[in-house]
Design goal:
Metallo-beta-lactamase, Chain A; 11 helices; binds zinc ion; TAT_signal; RibonucZ/Hydroxyglut_hydro; Metallo-B-lactamas; MBL fold metallo-hydrolase
Protein backbone atom coordinates (compact mmCIF):
# COMPACT_ATOMS: atom_id res chain seq x y z
CA UNK A 1 0.00 0.00 0.00
CA UNK A 2 1.41 3.37 -0.96
CA UNK A 3 1.67 6.24 1.50
CA UNK A 4 -1.06 8.09 -0.42
CA UNK A 5 -3.37 5.07 -0.23
CA UNK A 6 -2.86 4.73 3.48
CA UNK A 7 -3.42 8.44 4.01
CA UNK A 8 -6.72 8.09 2.17
CA UNK A 9 -7.82 5.41 4.63
CA UNK A 10 -7.14 7.54 7.69
CA UNK A 11 -10.37 9.18 8.74
CA UNK A 12 -9.87 11.89 11.31
CA UNK A 13 -7.40 14.77 11.12
CA UNK A 14 -5.84 13.45 14.35
CA UNK A 15 -5.24 10.03 12.80
CA UNK A 16 -3.75 11.67 9.76
CA UNK A 17 -1.58 13.98 11.82
CA UNK A 18 -0.25 11.16 13.95
CA UNK A 19 0.35 9.04 10.88
CA UNK A 20 2.33 11.85 9.26
CA UNK A 21 4.31 12.36 12.41
CA UNK A 22 4.99 8.64 12.69
CA UNK A 23 6.14 8.46 9.08
CA UNK A 24 8.46 11.35 9.76
CA UNK A 25 9.69 9.61 12.90
CA UNK A 26 10.46 6.41 11.01
CA UNK A 27 12.44 8.40 8.46
CA UNK A 28 14.27 10.18 11.28
CA UNK A 29 15.45 6.98 12.97
CA UNK A 30 18.99 7.09 11.56
CA UNK A 31 19.49 10.71 12.75
CA UNK A 32 18.30 9.90 16.26
CA UNK A 33 20.33 6.69 16.37
CA UNK A 34 23.38 8.69 15.36
CA UNK A 35 22.66 11.14 18.20
CA UNK A 36 22.78 8.17 20.55
CA UNK A 37 26.16 7.17 19.20
CA UNK A 38 24.92 4.29 17.04
CA UNK A 39 25.93 3.17 13.58
CA UNK A 40 22.85 2.52 11.44
CA UNK A 41 23.38 -0.78 9.64
CA UNK A 42 19.92 -1.72 8.39
CA UNK A 43 17.00 -0.03 6.66
CA UNK A 44 13.87 0.06 8.88
CA UNK A 45 11.97 -2.13 6.40
CA UNK A 46 14.52 -4.95 6.59
CA UNK A 47 15.43 -4.70 10.29
CA UNK A 48 14.94 -7.84 12.39
CA UNK A 49 12.64 -6.85 15.27
CA UNK A 50 12.10 -10.39 16.60
CA UNK A 51 12.04 -10.51 20.37
CA UNK A 52 11.78 -6.76 20.90
CA UNK A 53 9.09 -5.92 23.49
CA UNK A 54 5.83 -4.13 22.68
CA UNK A 55 4.87 -0.90 24.45
CA UNK A 56 1.60 0.99 24.81
CA UNK A 57 0.67 3.23 21.88
CA UNK A 58 1.81 6.85 22.02
CA UNK A 59 -1.13 9.20 22.69
CA UNK A 60 -1.70 11.42 19.63
CA UNK A 61 -1.41 14.45 21.94
CA UNK A 62 2.31 13.70 22.39
CA UNK A 63 3.05 14.18 18.72
CA UNK A 64 3.73 17.44 16.96
CA UNK A 65 3.52 18.62 13.38
CA UNK A 66 5.10 16.52 10.63
CA UNK A 67 8.61 17.45 9.59
CA UNK A 68 9.32 18.35 5.96
CA UNK A 69 11.35 16.40 3.41
CA UNK A 70 14.56 17.94 4.82
CA UNK A 71 13.65 16.55 8.26
CA UNK A 72 12.60 19.67 10.14
CA UNK A 73 9.56 21.72 11.08
CA UNK A 74 9.73 25.44 11.79
CA UNK A 75 6.79 27.26 13.37
CA UNK A 76 5.95 30.58 14.92
CA UNK A 77 5.77 30.60 18.71
CA UNK A 78 4.57 34.20 18.95
CA UNK A 79 5.27 37.19 16.65
CA UNK A 80 8.97 37.06 15.67
CA UNK A 81 9.88 34.13 17.94
CA UNK A 82 10.09 30.77 16.14
CA UNK A 83 10.88 27.18 17.07
CA UNK A 84 12.49 24.40 15.05
CA UNK A 85 12.25 20.67 15.65
CA UNK A 86 13.41 17.46 14.03
CA UNK A 87 10.74 15.62 16.03
CA UNK A 88 13.12 14.84 18.91
CA UNK A 89 15.16 18.00 19.56
CA UNK A 90 14.14 21.65 19.61
CA UNK A 91 15.83 25.01 19.10
CA UNK A 92 14.36 28.51 18.86
CA UNK A 93 15.21 31.79 17.18
CA UNK A 94 14.18 35.43 17.27
CA UNK A 95 14.32 37.50 14.11
CA UNK A 96 15.27 41.09 14.97
CA UNK A 97 16.12 44.30 13.15
CA UNK A 98 19.81 43.54 13.81
CA UNK A 99 19.85 39.87 12.82
CA UNK A 100 18.86 36.52 14.26
CA UNK A 101 19.29 35.35 17.86
CA UNK A 102 19.48 31.54 18.02
CA UNK A 103 18.73 29.58 21.18
CA UNK A 104 20.63 26.26 21.26
CA UNK A 105 21.95 24.42 18.22
CA UNK A 106 21.23 20.68 18.49
CA UNK A 107 23.48 18.74 16.10
CA UNK A 108 20.58 16.50 15.02
CA UNK A 109 18.92 19.62 13.54
CA UNK A 110 22.35 20.80 12.32
CA UNK A 111 22.25 22.52 8.95
CA UNK A 112 18.45 22.56 9.10
CA UNK A 113 18.76 25.39 11.64
CA UNK A 114 19.96 27.80 8.95
CA UNK A 115 17.47 26.35 6.45
CA UNK A 116 14.63 27.04 8.89
CA UNK A 117 15.94 30.55 9.54
CA UNK A 118 16.30 31.20 5.79
CA UNK A 119 12.74 30.02 5.23
CA UNK A 120 11.31 32.38 7.85
CA UNK A 121 13.59 35.31 6.98
CA UNK A 122 12.80 35.21 3.28
CA UNK A 123 9.06 34.91 3.94
CA UNK A 124 9.18 37.98 6.20
CA UNK A 125 11.84 40.05 4.44
CA UNK A 126 14.18 40.15 7.44
CA UNK A 127 17.85 39.30 7.94
CA UNK A 128 18.79 35.62 8.04
CA UNK A 129 22.18 36.36 9.63
CA UNK A 130 22.68 34.67 13.01
CA UNK A 131 24.42 37.25 15.20
CA UNK A 132 23.97 35.69 18.65
CA UNK A 133 23.60 32.17 20.07
CA UNK A 134 22.23 31.74 23.59
CA UNK A 135 23.14 28.45 25.29
CA UNK A 136 20.60 26.76 27.59
CA UNK A 137 23.23 24.45 29.14
CA UNK A 138 26.48 22.82 28.11
CA UNK A 139 25.24 19.42 26.87
CA UNK A 140 26.48 18.42 23.42
CA UNK A 141 23.10 17.13 22.29
CA UNK A 142 21.75 20.72 22.50
CA UNK A 143 24.85 22.69 21.44
CA UNK A 144 26.83 20.43 19.10
CA UNK A 145 25.73 22.41 16.02
CA UNK A 146 27.02 25.72 17.39
CA UNK A 147 30.29 25.61 15.42
CA UNK A 148 28.30 25.73 12.16
CA UNK A 149 27.75 29.46 12.76
CA UNK A 150 31.45 30.32 12.79
CA UNK A 151 33.41 32.73 14.90
CA UNK A 152 31.60 35.96 14.07
CA UNK A 153 28.60 35.31 16.31
CA UNK A 154 28.38 36.32 19.95
CA UNK A 155 27.73 33.33 22.18
CA UNK A 156 26.00 33.94 25.50
CA UNK A 157 25.74 31.53 28.41
CA UNK A 158 26.00 30.99 32.12
CA UNK A 159 29.43 31.29 33.72
CA UNK A 160 29.26 27.59 34.63
CA UNK A 161 28.42 26.71 31.02
CA UNK A 162 31.65 28.39 30.04
CA UNK A 163 33.58 26.48 32.72
CA UNK A 164 32.09 23.13 31.69
CA UNK A 165 32.72 23.77 27.99
CA UNK A 166 36.33 24.70 28.73
CA UNK A 167 36.58 21.36 30.55
CA UNK A 168 34.92 19.43 27.70
CA UNK A 169 37.15 21.10 25.07
CA UNK A 170 34.84 20.20 22.18
CA UNK A 171 35.37 22.26 19.01
CA UNK A 172 31.71 21.79 18.04
CA UNK A 173 30.69 23.82 21.14
CA UNK A 174 32.66 27.10 21.21
CA UNK A 175 32.64 28.59 24.72
CA UNK A 176 30.39 31.60 25.43
CA UNK A 177 31.95 35.02 24.83
CA UNK A 178 29.52 36.67 27.22
CA UNK A 179 28.62 35.10 30.55
CA UNK A 180 26.48 35.94 33.56
CA UNK A 181 26.14 34.62 37.10
CA UNK A 182 22.58 35.18 38.34
CA UNK A 183 20.52 37.17 35.86
CA UNK A 184 21.07 38.97 32.60
CA UNK A 185 18.61 40.83 30.37
CA UNK A 186 19.59 40.90 26.71
CA UNK A 187 18.45 43.79 24.51
CA UNK A 188 19.11 42.80 20.91
CA UNK A 189 17.55 44.50 17.90
CA UNK A 190 14.76 45.95 20.01
CA UNK A 191 13.93 42.59 21.64
CA UNK A 192 14.11 41.68 25.31
CA UNK A 193 15.30 38.29 26.59
CA UNK A 194 15.68 37.53 30.30
CA UNK A 195 18.22 34.89 31.31
CA UNK A 196 18.27 33.53 34.85
CA UNK A 197 20.25 30.93 36.75
CA UNK A 198 18.00 29.89 39.64
CA UNK A 199 20.03 27.08 41.13
CA UNK A 200 21.13 23.79 39.68
CA UNK A 201 18.65 21.32 38.18
CA UNK A 202 19.20 19.12 35.12
CA UNK A 203 22.82 20.29 35.10
CA UNK A 204 24.67 22.81 37.27
CA UNK A 205 24.35 25.40 34.45
CA UNK A 206 20.81 24.93 33.08
CA UNK A 207 19.13 28.35 32.78
CA UNK A 208 15.63 29.83 32.41
CA UNK A 209 15.26 31.79 29.17
CA UNK A 210 12.21 34.03 29.43
CA UNK A 211 10.74 36.00 26.56
CA UNK A 212 8.51 38.46 28.46
CA UNK A 213 7.22 40.07 25.26
CA UNK A 214 6.46 36.72 23.59
CA UNK A 215 4.70 34.88 26.44
CA UNK A 216 7.32 32.14 26.30
CA UNK A 217 9.68 30.27 28.60
CA UNK A 218 12.52 28.13 27.26
CA UNK A 219 13.65 25.63 29.90
CA UNK A 220 15.40 22.62 28.42
CA UNK A 221 15.53 19.02 29.66
CA UNK A 222 13.02 19.41 32.50
CA UNK A 223 9.55 18.81 31.06
CA UNK A 224 9.51 17.17 27.63
CA UNK A 225 5.93 18.13 26.71
CA UNK A 226 3.65 15.14 26.23
CA UNK A 227 6.28 12.60 27.29
CA UNK A 228 7.62 11.10 30.50
CA UNK A 229 11.27 11.99 31.18
CA UNK A 230 14.01 10.24 29.25
CA UNK A 231 15.74 7.32 30.98
CA UNK A 232 16.51 7.66 34.70
CA UNK A 233 14.72 11.00 35.27
CA UNK A 234 16.31 12.65 32.22
CA UNK A 235 19.77 11.85 33.66
CA UNK A 236 19.22 14.94 35.83
CA UNK A 237 22.36 15.62 37.82
CA UNK A 238 20.66 17.44 40.71
CA UNK A 239 17.53 15.45 41.52
CA UNK A 240 16.00 17.75 44.21
CA UNK A 241 16.78 20.79 42.03
CA UNK A 242 15.10 19.14 39.06
CA UNK A 243 12.05 18.16 41.13
CA UNK A 244 11.69 21.85 42.11
CA UNK A 245 12.17 23.25 38.59
CA UNK A 246 8.54 22.92 37.31
CA UNK A 247 7.28 25.11 40.19
CA UNK A 248 9.93 27.70 39.37
CA UNK A 249 8.96 27.53 35.70
CA UNK A 250 5.29 28.01 36.57
CA UNK A 251 6.15 31.07 38.71
CA UNK A 252 7.00 32.90 35.46
CA UNK A 253 4.23 34.35 33.28
CA UNK A 254 4.09 32.46 29.98
CA UNK A 255 1.78 30.64 27.61
CA UNK A 256 4.30 28.69 25.49
CA UNK A 257 7.07 26.42 26.74
CA UNK A 258 10.05 25.38 24.63
CA UNK A 259 11.31 22.24 26.35
CA UNK A 260 14.18 21.37 24.03
CA UNK A 261 12.68 17.98 23.24
CA UNK A 262 10.19 16.07 21.22
CA UNK A 263 7.85 17.29 18.55
CA UNK A 264 5.72 20.01 20.03
CA UNK A 265 5.65 23.04 22.29
CA UNK A 266 4.41 22.79 25.86
CA UNK A 267 1.59 24.46 27.75
CA UNK A 268 1.18 25.33 31.41
CA UNK A 269 -1.07 22.28 31.68
CA UNK A 270 1.74 20.06 30.32
CA UNK A 271 4.06 21.46 32.99
CA UNK A 272 1.47 20.85 35.72
CA UNK A 273 0.81 17.25 34.54
CA UNK A 274 4.54 16.56 34.56
CA UNK A 275 4.85 18.09 38.04
CA UNK A 276 2.03 15.80 39.25
CA UNK A 277 3.67 12.77 37.61
CA UNK A 278 6.87 13.38 39.57
CA UNK A 279 4.87 14.06 42.76
CA UNK A 280 2.97 10.78 42.29
CA UNK A 281 6.24 8.87 41.87
CA UNK A 282 7.64 10.48 45.03
CA UNK A 283 4.56 9.36 46.98
CA UNK A 284 5.14 5.87 45.55
CA UNK A 285 8.82 5.62 46.45
CA UNK A 286 8.18 6.85 50.00
CA UNK A 287 5.45 4.21 50.36
CA UNK A 288 7.82 1.59 48.93
CA UNK A 289 10.47 2.44 51.53
CA UNK A 290 7.87 1.90 54.26
CA UNK A 291 6.03 -1.11 52.84
CA UNK A 292 8.33 -3.40 50.85
CA UNK A 293 9.79 -6.03 53.16
CA UNK A 294 13.54 -6.60 52.57
CA UNK A 295 13.59 -9.92 54.45
CA UNK A 296 13.09 -12.37 51.55
CA UNK A 297 15.88 -10.80 49.48
CA UNK A 298 18.46 -10.95 52.26
CA UNK A 299 17.29 -14.44 53.27
CA UNK A 300 17.79 -15.75 49.75
CA UNK A 301 21.09 -14.11 48.78
CA UNK A 302 23.00 -14.41 52.07
CA UNK A 303 26.49 -12.96 51.75
CA UNK A 304 25.85 -11.60 48.26
CA UNK A 305 24.69 -8.23 49.48
CA UNK A 306 24.56 -6.64 46.05
CA UNK A 307 22.20 -9.35 44.79
CA UNK A 308 19.92 -8.76 47.79
CA UNK A 309 20.04 -4.98 47.40
CA UNK A 310 19.44 -5.17 43.66
CA UNK A 311 16.36 -7.36 43.96
CA UNK A 312 15.01 -5.48 47.00
CA UNK A 313 15.33 -2.12 45.21
CA UNK A 314 13.85 -3.57 42.03
CA UNK A 315 10.82 -4.57 44.09
CA UNK A 316 10.61 -1.10 45.64
CA UNK A 317 10.90 0.55 42.24
CA UNK A 318 8.17 -1.66 40.80
CA UNK A 319 5.95 -0.97 43.82
CA UNK A 320 6.32 2.80 43.22
CA UNK A 321 6.13 2.74 39.43
CA UNK A 322 3.28 0.33 38.68
CA UNK A 323 0.36 2.58 39.78
CA UNK A 324 1.99 5.60 38.13
CA UNK A 325 2.42 3.73 34.84
CA UNK A 326 -1.24 2.76 35.04
CA UNK A 327 -2.36 6.34 35.76
CA UNK A 328 -0.30 7.98 33.02
CA UNK A 329 -0.55 5.45 30.18
CA UNK A 330 -2.48 7.30 27.48
CA UNK A 331 -1.69 10.64 29.18
CA UNK A 332 2.11 10.88 28.86
CA UNK A 333 3.87 9.03 26.07
CA UNK A 334 6.17 6.15 27.03
CA UNK A 335 4.98 5.93 30.66
CA UNK A 336 5.56 2.16 30.40
CA UNK A 337 9.03 2.66 28.89
CA UNK A 338 10.87 4.88 31.36
CA UNK A 339 8.82 5.28 34.57
CA UNK A 340 10.65 2.49 36.41
CA UNK A 341 14.10 3.93 35.73
CA UNK A 342 12.91 7.36 36.89
CA UNK A 343 11.35 5.78 40.00
CA UNK A 344 14.72 4.25 40.85
CA UNK A 345 16.48 7.64 40.64
CA UNK A 346 13.77 9.26 42.80
CA UNK A 347 14.02 6.39 45.29
CA UNK A 348 17.76 6.95 45.63
CA UNK A 349 17.28 10.71 46.02
CA UNK A 350 14.60 10.31 48.70
CA UNK A 351 16.89 7.91 50.54
CA UNK A 352 20.19 9.79 50.13
CA UNK A 353 19.19 13.47 49.80
CA UNK A 354 16.22 13.50 52.16
CA UNK A 355 17.36 10.69 54.46
CA UNK A 356 13.94 9.03 54.41
CA UNK A 357 14.13 5.34 55.31
CA UNK A 358 17.59 5.55 56.85
CA UNK A 359 17.84 4.07 60.33
CA UNK A 360 20.41 4.81 63.00
CA UNK A 361 21.94 1.76 64.64
CA UNK A 362 20.62 1.28 68.16
ZN1 LIG B 1 20.90 18.13 28.81
Amino acid sequence: MSVLDSLGSLGSPTDRRSFLARSAKAAAVPALAAALGGSVLAQPASADTTGLPDYAPIPPSALGPAVNAQGYYVGRVERNLYWVTDGTYQAAFLTTSDGVVLFDAPPTIGHNLQRAIDEVASANGVSNQVTHIVYSHHHADHLGGSFLFGNDVERIGHVETRALLLRDNDPSRPVPDTTFTDRKTLHIGGERIELAHLGTNHTPDNIYIHFPDHGTLMLVDINLPGWVPFDSFNLNEDVPGSIAAPATALSYPWTHHIGGHMGRLGTREDMAIYQQYVADLLVGVKAALANVDPTPYFAKYGDNEWAAVKEYQAAQTKYAADPVIKKYTGVLAAADVYTESTAFVLLESVRLDLGIGSQVHA
